[in-house]
Amino acid sequence: MRPLFLAGGLISVGFAAAGAFLPLLPTVPFLLVAAFCFARSSPALEQKILDHPVWGPHVRDWRERGAIPRRAKYAAIGGMSMGVVFTYATLGFPWAWVSIAILVLVGPWIWTRKE
Question: What is the pLDDT of residues 61-70, one digit of tens each?
Fold first, then answer.
């Protein structure tokens, strides 16, 4: 199982790296998955994520308290809103309803997390 968790962690880090540069792809959720996988396969890589100066505090806050900083909440909900506009502009309806559903279901959940 360790090689599968290691592969999952590395793939998640790859997606997180892409998310750091692409505005509609989240970074921290992929790092949360990577930390989960690395905790079961490579504690040294897990520690690298936790010690990272930018992303480490977000991962630790989520692990310890289930908390999302207010600024990250604004960014996540704003990104999902931009996703609705982008989907509508490129694919139109009915595909925009998928983005709207994600915003309506996930947005309030994000907003109600601790800070």
Answer: 999 999 999 9
